[in-house]
Design goal:
Belongs to the HMBS family. It catalyses: 4 porphobilinogen + H2O = hydroxymethylbilane + 4 NH4(+). The protein has 332 residues and is an alpha/beta fold. Helix content is 30%, strand content 22%. A 5-stranded mixed beta sheet has the order 2-1-3-10-4, with helices on both faces. A 5-stranded mixed beta sheet has the order 7-6-8-5-9. Strand 12 and strand 13 form a beta hairpin. Helix 1 packs across helix 7 and helix 8 runs parallel beside helix 9.
Length: 332
């Protein structure tokens, strides 16, 4: 049996999918092949938030699964909509890597060192809002493109192919903000000038995590459920699942779902287990950075139900503190 693994064709997607494929093959003892799937997010241009957000990277892969064109799909979990996909299951959440965002700036600058009115690029409303809250004087530029394209907007970064200033294309920004996880997976941490700690910038829900999705009939069975499979693929998927990562992202995604937060809503969330407790912190920001609502909660309910309830509880607290008044939570 050859297991077909669906992936986007970007450098980052191919890298993280190949790493997952290698792990599945090693655990399951079966051959694997990658199936390239082109998504709307790879084809359309313009602002990501105006195209339907990160969900545009997921729909085509899910369709390929449902059409039996692949057996497994690998996503960045932060791209996965919180709503359930009929016929599909989140089969595994491998161990999470660094959740932080990073600054990649010219001349080795850190966030505090950037000059007034420095031009900082990001395609994320969450990052933009938290940057403006930390440094209201910055000029935030909406950018698109793969990792190399974004890094190419900052002069002097290692690996850049040109030092020519071309507005909107190359060497025209003072810095960009990206996810540490993506840079780590493709071996580009050499471009990082500062890791932005979570007290400055909370990550997107699920950031640093992968989501391995498959048809529900092929997924590892959940306790008390008759759905699922006990075949070799499901056993391999179960072996890749990291329970602490699943608890954390379950809490983060439950918070988003209760907030009814769209893909362009400026919401950050980070959950982690510490001993017998699961902690969750979240922030909702005004897009212009002038107002934020931030809070945190913890639970000793170390189950998916407990994690879900934690996310809902914190979301309710944020709403009670006026989160819906300072941000358009349904933004998409």
């Amino acid at each position: 049996m050859t297991v077909r693994i669906g992936t986007r064709a970007s450098k980052l997607a191919l890298t993280q999918t190949q790493q997952t494929a290698d792990q599945l093959a090693a655990v399951g003892g079966f051959p694997v092949e990658l199936v390239h799937v082109r998504t709307d997010g790879d084809v359309l241009t313009g602002s990501l938030s105006q195209m339907g957000g990160t969900g545009v990277f997921v729909a085509a892969l899910r369709d390929a699964l449902l059409r039996d064109e692949c057996d497994v799909a690998v996503h960045s979990l932060k791209d996965l909509p919180t709503g359930a996909a009929v016929g599909l299951s989140l089969a595994a959440t491998p161990r999470r890597v660094d959740v932080r965002d990073v600054l990649c700036a010219r001349d080795g600058l850190k966030l505090a060192d950037l000059p007034a009115a420095a031009r900082v690029g990001t395609g994320s409303p969450r990052r933009a809002a938290q940057l403006r809250a930390a440094r209201p004087d910055l000029h935030i530029v909406d950018i698109r493109g793969n990792v190399d394209t974004r890094l190419g907007r900052v002069p002097g970064l290692p690996g850049n192919s040109t030092d020519q200033v071309v507005p909107g294309k190359s060497c025209d920004l003072d810095a960009v903000v990206l996810a540490a996880a993506g840079l780590e997976r493709i071996g580009r941490l050499d471009v990082v000038t500062e890791y932005l700690e979570t007290d400055v910038m909370l990550p997107a829900a699920g950031q640093g995590s992968l989501a391995i999705e498959c048809r529900t009939a092929d997924a590892p069975p959940k306790p008390g459920s008759a759905e699922g499979s006990r075949e070799v693929l499901s056993q391999a998927l179960a072996a890749l699942d990291d329970p602490d990562t699943r608890l954390a992202v379950t809490a983060e995604r439950a918070l988003l779902a209760r907030l009814e937060a769209g893909c362009a809503a400026p919401v950050g969330a980070y959950a982690y287990r510490n001993g017998s407790m699961l902690h969750l912190e979240a922030v909702v920001c005004a897009v212009d950075g002038t107002a934020t609502v931030r809070d945190k909660r913890a639970t000793d309910g170390l189950t998916e139900v407990g994690a879900t309830l934690l996310g809902i509880e914190l979301a309710e607290a944020l709403l009670a503190s006026g989160a819906a008044d300072i941000a358009d939570l349904q933004a998409s």
